[in-house]
User: Fold these one by one.
Assistant:
Number 1:
Amino acid sequence: MSYMKEKNIHTPEKFIIAIDGPSGAGKSTLSRLLAERLSYTNINTGAMFRTVALAIDRAGLSLDDNEAIEKLCHQLHIHFKNDGGQETVWLGDEDVSELIRGSEMSMLTSQISALPVVRKSLLDLQREMAEHGGVVLEGRDIGSVVFPDAQVKFFLCASDEARGLRRHEELLSNGFDSDLEQTIAEVRQRDDADSSREHAPLVRAEDAITIDSTNMNIEQVLEKMISVVEHRHDELFMGKASGE
Ligand code: DC
């Protein structure tokens, strides 16, 4: 793809970049590509919540059992690997990248991500992973809760239909069964739950730049993001006034 061949842009000061938004808006792809272009680390926080959901499911814990979930969270070792551009998520020494992607795991993840004990444990881990900057984090509450002082914040959205279709295609390409109408309904259901939960709901940070990707391709969104990052860099370090 052409944008991969262009020279990497250089931002000497290492930013924290937050990309929040509902499922299927393109966060994972854009976050990975943006991190690649900036030579930053990509942190997919949804994959972290999914991995915790997998562990809770395997341990057979009740979602009411706060104490057991807290204990389990403290024992988990979640990390990412990047092998020549291929990103994987690991639970201890097991690659769980594919296991966490099914629809059932998506619904369970939405449920466990509402638990304060899970959020607290992943909040600490996310802050630790990103403490030196030079990271792109994607999730639901990165710009609002995890890094309210992030130098660049995006809120990426798209219509329900576009997001459902993308999720449907992603499921099929990962070898899962999927029905388009049902997938659109599940995407809506999950967004309602993620947006209405009490703790750290999906919300657009006041100072986030909204990008609606419904009628944009990945390349167009990426270029828009790069121009925002460059602009922000000039604004912060070259003393240029903001025109955003
Ligand atoms: O981005 P994703 O679809 O992989 O996220 C899975 C679920 O995890 C999603 O329903 C909401 C939750 N999540 C969250 O609550 N906070 C985050 N920072 C990331 C994901």
Number 2:
Amino acid sequence: GAGKGTQAMNLVDQYDLVHVSTGDLFRANIKNETELGKQVQSYLSSGKLVPDELTIALVWDRLDQDDTQKGFLLDGFPRTIAQAEALDQGLEERGMKIDAAVCIDVPSPVLVERLAGRRVCPECGASYHIKDNPPKKEGICDRCGAALEQRKDDTEETVKDRIDVYHKNTEP
Ligand code: AMP
């Protein structure tokens, strides 16, 4: 809800990077009913973090594909201290480094308002808001023409839990 997915999309287009979003990867696994998808479904719908072991394995699986040689942007990872340490270690082993990190600072009440009105494209990942950033045609993605959806974890109750999880696990 801070806008990391939206900003990530702008940056990967502008700098020709591979976009690696752990949230998108988990949602694709759930949609395709993979073994991993079944394991992580309940965490995503309740707004809890997926266990580090599964998340770290997923990220390296993606980063070890050839297309990331040109550069990549991590969106939604790392989200815990253990993930940050695994990232540092894995990058060192591969002789790679992070060039920059983006800090997006948004007050909690704004997050709740944004996420309640958010609609997302299940095909290309584009994000809209029913009031602040509506698509040209209601319910249809401007970028790819797919029907927009509301994420299951974008309810007010789950959003509050996600913000708590952020303060407890990610902020440190
Ligand atoms: P996002 O799309 O970034 O808002 O992520 C949606 C959900 O995916 C989160 O609420 C978590 O359940 C899960 N998730 C995404 N990234 C991570 C991560 N780095 N560690 C653990 N869980 C994650």
